[in-house]
Amino acid sequence: MKKLNKFLIVPSIAAIGCLSLAFSVARADDDQEGGDDVQGFESLDVEIAMIPTAAAPMGSSAKVSLEAEDDDGTTDAKLKLETEGLPAGTYSVSVTLKSDGSTVSLGSFTLSGGEAEIEFGSDDDGMPFPANFNPFDIATVSLSDSNAVVLFMADLTSATSAASMNRNASVQMTPGPGAPAASGHAMLTAHVVRGRTRGMLHLNAHGLPMRSRLMISANGTNAKKVNSDMAGNLSVSLRPKGKTGTVAPSVNLFSVTSVTVRDKFGNLLLNASF
Q1: What is the pLDDT of residues 73-94, one digit of tens each?
Q2: Which class is domain 165-273?
Q3: What pTM did the predictor assign?
Q4: Start-end of CATH 2.60.40 domains in the chain
Q5: Which among 142, 147, 182, 212 is placed 20 to 30 Å from 129, CA to CA?
């Protein structure tokens, strides 16, 4: 992961404050959809222009970038906002989460006008993320004024206004109660080409019921029916479809947080979290 510059707010900013740190993200147990820690490696690199709302001051602009890596549960991440043309005042940054749609406040800053760069991170370079915060769970980022009026928004799961988006993951799958001896590996690659999502979600699995009809789901949404072979093995790829790059209804490669394998009775056989 490339190193971001040190925390910087240009001289036009007077102070930083009002951080909200009281937040925790709880993922599901390993025998359910989701899991506590990534068992493997995941990286995400996004740079995207924020979309102004009707309340945004004329001539102002903002963009956001996120760089994150998770290596067997150890996360290093930076979220950076760059703004131009905002008048003097206090502004706040918040995000919504892919996992449950909730809103999390990252912090506030005060400026006297002009340009600014604001960083949030998992180390000492910028304002810290809230405790137990998962940067891979960010769905949207919003910038609001002191009256809590949203001025700019960005969807980090959509390629529509992205300058660049890249996601890679390679994680171990966890056996479920329906196949306690099963094992598997899930790989996810995603990138944006001319506003469209490319890549795939690929599963390799072993120790499944032999010659069985199975269902692959992403984020709990059914994606594809497959069959295991005579030895109980499975190899399947889910590729993005349409302009939004979905691998399951309303689930694109940048919004995938979990993938499961279930039998025809709905019993969980394998599960992986991203």
Answers
A1: 788 999 999 999 999 999 999 9
A2: mainly beta
A3: 0.76
A4: 13-20+27-155, 165-273
A5: 147
